[in-house]
Amino acid sequence: MRSYRISLFTIVLAFTLSGLAVAQEAAPELPSAEISDMSGKIVNTTNIAHPDANLLILTWETGTPGSLLCLDAISMLKDSIAKATRTKVVMINFDPAADLNKVKATAKEHQWTFEGYVDPKQDFKNAAAISFLPVVLIVDRNNKIVYRKAAFYLGDEQTVMSELKKLSR
What dotted CATH number matches 28-168? Predict the structure, then answer.
């Protein structure tokens, strides 16, 4: 009976791991969700990208220090990103609608000049399975997510830049 359990466990484990390997091979598409730009205009996330450029999406909330660190670090590289890669950089905020003024004030205070969007209902956050902020997404010209990183530490901006350069070759 014991060997039967071990065999069954081994088979289940093998199927689970092979399923994970297959799931990681195909790049997921950028999920479709309705968000707003900072002026309130509704935009679908699949329409943010430009066909001639890759897309770097930085997700954030005002109360998450890692999010602010991420945006500050990438902001310092914005000119290098524009020069070395064909990449459009956008930020998507998930704070509640009541905090929109706080979101705008934070972006202005930090002098972030990225194209900004808000997702107060967290439709994109849920569609992209984002549970921990910040999340950095790199989307290729075919709307495929080719790089995803949760959490952000100083130095990670160089990894992001490296991934963007690889994609731009």
Answer: 3.40.30.10
